[in-house]
Amino acid sequence: MGEQVTIPATGVASYSEGRPGIVDVRLPRDGAQFVIVALQPGVTSLLLIYADGRQVRYAITVLDPEQSVTATGGVPARENIRLDLYFVQLQQSYSHQLGLAFPGSIGGAGIARVQASLDLTTFSLQSATATITNQALPRLDLAQASGWARLLRQAMLVTANGQEAEINSGGEVNIVVSGGFGGQIQRIEFGSNIEVTPRYDPETRRIEVAIQADVSDLTEAGTSGVPGRTRTQLSTVVNLELGQSIVLGGLVSRTSRESQGGLPGLSQIPIVGVLFGTNQRADENVENLLFIVPTVVQAVPRAQSDRIAEALRIYERFGSIGGPGLGDIELIEPSPPGYE
C-alpha cells in the first residue's frame, strides 16, 4: 500500500480495471508504460487489450505494510535492510605509587626466625642464621604503569523493512554465592546488546533507524573477589539518506582512585609527610564508539533470474561446441508482455 509499479504499454489499444478503488492506473503522455499506484488493501485485476487482438490479464494484490501476514496466508513484499555494526572501545589507564611504606604492626608472633644445621654424627653445629621478620624499617615504593586497549566487535544483520533486529555479543561470569541451605550460582553478564529498527521509504529513498544500545564491561575484582560492571545505555532515532552512516560517540567514562597510607599524624604533614607515607593514584578512561551502516538489499526478481540462468546455459552449451565467445553474444532487451 502506497507503492508504485510500472507495466509496459507498448501496443496496448485499451485497458480495463476490475475492482475500482484498490489501485490507480495512470498512463503518462508518452504512452510508454502504465503506472500502478496501490491505494488500499484488496485484490483486483487489470486487463490489457492489444491492437492485434491479444489480451493479457494481471492479478493485483495490495497488502497492508502493518500486517506481516494477510488473511489469505500471503506474505507482503518488503525490502530487506542490511545493517553493518562496528563497536569500538578505547580504554586508557594510568597508575603510580610513590613514597615510603611502613609496616602496619610491630611485634607479636613471628618477630624473629632462627635456622640451624646440626651434624648428628659428630653432634656439631654446622650453620645457624637468625632473621628478624617483623621489624620497623620501611620499604621504598616507586612504581608507575600506563597502557591502553582497543576492543573491536563487528556484526552484520539483515532484517525486513520496519522489523526490529537485535544482536547480543559478550559473555558472563559465574559466581558461587553461599547461603544457609547451600550455594547458588549468580551470573554477571557483560558485552553489547543492540536493538535496531530500520524504516525505509522507497519514494524518498530515505531511511530512519531507531537504535537502543546497552554496552557493559567487567571491572577489576575488589577486596571481596567479585568483579563489577560498567554500563552505558543510549536510545535515539536517526533519519538519513542511503549511502550515509551513523556514528554514535561521546560515550565516555572516567574513573579516578587515590589513596594515601603511612604513619599516623606524620604522613599528614605537608611536604614532609611524603617521607612517612605512600601515595597511590589510578586513572582509567573508557570511550565507546558505535558505527552503523544501513543498506537496502535489492533482490533479483524470479523472472529475470530465470532469464539469466537460461542465457548462461545457452552460452555454455554453445561455447562447448566451438561457438563464439561471450564478447560475440548480443544482449537483447526483453519484449513487452504479450510478445514473444
TrEMBL record:
One of its GO terms (biological process) is protein secretion. Residues 144-298 form the Type II/III secretion system secretin-like domain. InterPro entries: Bact_Secretion_Sys_Channel, T2SS/T3SS_dom, T2SS_GspD_CS. GO terms for cellular component: type II protein secretion system complex. PANTHER family: PROBABLE GENERAL SECRETION PATHWAY PROTEIN D (PTHR30332), TYPE IV PILIATION SYSTEM PROTEIN DR_0774-RELATED (PTHR30332:SF17). Belongs to the bacterial secretin family. This is Type II/IV secretion system secretin RcpA/CpaC.
